[in-house]
Amino acid sequence: MVRVLYFAWLRERAGRAEEQLTLPSGVTTIGGLAAWLRARDEAGAAVFSNPAVIRAAVNQRFAAQDVPIADGDEVAFFPPVTGG
Amino acid sequence: MITIRVQTGDFDMAAELAALTAGRGDVGGIGCFIGVVRDDPAHPLAALSLEHYPGMTEQAMTAIATEAARRWDLAGCTLLHRVGRLPVGANIVLVLAAAPHRQSALDAAGFLIDWLKTKAPFWKQEFFADGTKRWIEAREDDDTAASRWQ
Questions:
Q1: Is the dihedral of CA B134, B141, B3, B93 positive or negative?
Q2: pTM above 0.90, yes or no
Q3: Could you give the dihedral angle defined by the CA atoms of residues B90, B115, B25 and B21, in that order, rounded to the nearest 10 degrees?
Q4: Which of B2, B40, B75, B133 could form a disulfide with B65 if both were Cys (CB 3.0 to 4.6 A apart)?
């Protein structure tokens, strides 16, 4: 299983803050998971409509699209940060 | 000493300064930055709402503070960030950097807030007086400010 978290407006479009899912076969990277979620349903399409503005983390570290993911990972998707 | 905290309540500046310097004779200066919720006369703001990624936030803030301590000769630093609903005028963030000399203290404080704005997982949503709301978008000049420390 992979734990997927959504923050800020991605959470609103996803309609949830997190979900657990079995890593789909063939999905091996952050970008691959984003593409799979985008194709999965309407909410996913809304969340990932513009992948260029989405950032990600794997196991609580910022991660680029090509970073590998594996069973047991915590993957988060969010917009560019705006704290401070 | 590195102090990292994410909290909903306001911070007590005097208490944080006292904690940073307690028992130390090597502090010659303290650089400080306080971020405050600013109104927009063109579109009056009621409040900001801040959310973060618990767990990752603390790790990211610790990494930023550790990097500051690696780059400058610091006696200590404090990074406090508030989350939740913050009205206009409220404090958002406190950065303190204590060092033997002023240049290190001021530079480290500048570095800490620049990196905090671009490398820690916080997000701000604006709630306007007219009832509308909007997620704040990342600013290119924040990235520019952060990149001057590369």
A1: negative
A2: yes
A3: 30
A4: B2
